[in-house]
Design goal:
mainly beta; OB fold (Dihydrolipoamide Acetyltransferase, E2P); five-stranded mixed β-sheet; 3 helices; 10 strands
Length: 184
C-alpha cells in the first residue's frame, strides 16, 4: 500500500500546508503514539511473519530481512528499539505492519557512501498500527523535560507535538533511525 494513495488523510486544519509537514501517525503500544515524516516514507506493508528471515548476532530489535521488490530490506521492531516490549513477546496477528523508511541524503549521520552504492538507505519499521496522516508545523515541536525521555528514545526524538485536542505525539527523526543500524 502506498503512503500517498493507500491511507486516508486526516488533515489538521490548524496547520497551513505551506508551513507544515506531513507525518504518518503510528501506534507502538497502547499509549505510545509516534509520527514519522511522510517525506521519508515510501510504502506501508503488511508482511506475514514467516517472510522475515532472522539474522543471528544482531541487536534484538533487528528482526531480520525481507525480500521487498527483489531487494533486501532490513526489518526493525521500532517499539523494541525505542524501549517498549518486543514484538515477539506480545500476542499479535500473524501479519506485521511496516513503514518503509528511506534516507534524507542531506544528513551526514548516515555514513552512506553513494559512490559504492551502499544499501543502508532503506529500513522497514515494524509498528503495531499505522493510523493516519497528520499535518504538523515542525516549529511547534517541543522539547520534553529530560526526565520524561527514556535513554532508548532520546537519540531518535525530534520533539513532541501537543495537538489542540491535548493529545501528545512523539516525532521521530528518520535519519537517526537509519543511522542506528549496525554496520557490517
Amino acid at each position: 500500500m502506498s503512503i500517498r494513495s493507500g491511507l486516508p488523510p486526516s488533515v489538521n486544519h490548524t496547520v497551513n500546508p505551506q508551513t507544515g509537514e506531513q507525518f504518518l501517525r503510528c501506534c507502538l503500544a497502547p499509549d505510545a503514539l509516534v509520527m514519522l515524516p511522510v517525506a521519508q516514507l515510501t510504502e506501508v506493508l503488511r508482511i506475514p511473519i514467516e517472510q522475515i528471515t532472522p539474522i543471528p548476532h544482531l541487536p534484538a530489535w533487528v528482526m531480520g530481512v525481507y525480500n521487498w521488490r527483489g531487494e533486501v530490506l532490513w526489518m526493525v521492531d521500532l517499539g523494541h528499539l525505542l524501549g517498549f516490549e518486543p514484538w515477539h513477546q506480545r500476542s499479535v496477528s500473524p501479519l506485521y505492519t511496516a513503514a518503509v523508511l528511506h534516507a534524507d541524503f542531506s544528513d551526514q549521520r548516515l555514513g552512506v557512501n553513494h559512490e559504492l552504492g551502499e544499501d543502508r538507505q532503506m529500513l522497514g519499521l515494524v509498528v503495531t498500527q499505522v493510523q493516519e496522516i497528520e499535518w504538523c508545523d515542525p516549529g511547534q515541536l517541543q522539547s520534553p523535560p529530560p526526565s520524561a525521555v527514556t535513554p532508548e528514545l532520546a537519540p531518535f526524538l525530534r520533539g513532541y507535538w501537543l495537538k489542540p485536542t491535548g493529545e501528545v505525539l512523539a516525532s521521530l527523526d528518520g535519519n537517526a533511525l537509519l543511522a542506528a543500524m549496525p554496520k557490517a
